[in-house]
Amino acid sequence: EVQLVESGGDLVQAGGSLRLSCAASGFIFNTYVMRWVRQAPGKGLEWVATISSLGSRTSTADSVKDRFTISRDNAKNTLYLQMNALKPEDTAVYYCARARAWTGSDYDYRGQGTQVTVSS
Fold it and tell me: Which has fewest Cβ within 10 Å: 16, 35, 47, 80?
């Protein structure tokens, strides 16, 4: 059974930092592209970042570029999202997801999410 379990969300002041983690199990982690997506209150899902299976290639949305960094540790089956210089508009539930392919933003499995709240 594929499982993705996010952690690390919190309430933080604007300008602060957080690191989200996603523990993966039930599949061969180092063979899959992985993504972070988020959903702000009252809005649809927004793609945040993608990382290749071995971590050699990343892509980040313009809205978080230069502030957020996606990474992975395949030895630990864990995906990360380092978030710096947080803004109130980053407030959302953040999900890790197993991608179907490098391109696009779709996925076949997603975790339950972790809440990030940024106060002004």
Answer: 16
